[in-house]
Amino acid sequence: MADRDVARAEEQLDLALLEAVADETIAAVEHRRRLFEAYRSFWDAVAEAQSSLEPGAELTTPAETYVVGEVTSDGITARVRGRSREFTRKSLPVDLAVALAERTLGADSNEAKLAIGAFHATRGDAAGIDAARRLWGEASGAEAGDLLSELDEITR
Fold it and tell me: What is the pTM (predicted TM-score) of this model?
């Protein structure tokens, strides 16, 4: 999931489930699927926000302000720090990806905390793990607890 390829991640989960024979392994794959579903929700929210962007729209993050120039099915072009840059799903800066997801999900909704936490958990760095743990700790419901348990498994 760290490569931001949702279809490939789902394919890998499906293959893992097909190959799983022990009940313990099947349960582990199903736990990982919960993380994947939240991860997919994140990228669905990013895509929805991206498709609604208009040229000239400003996306402000704690680190930057992005001014949208063009939106295509492959990504967006935005001005940041006076330079025009093209971003695809794989090259979206973390703060911009989160800002886009928050446009769709809201910043403080439970769904946002679960989805954005899943994105952070799959980033592959300590800051991402810490952000996921914080967001899922703030979220309510059994799913948040399940995701926190999954995070513990991932980081062992």
Answer: 0.83
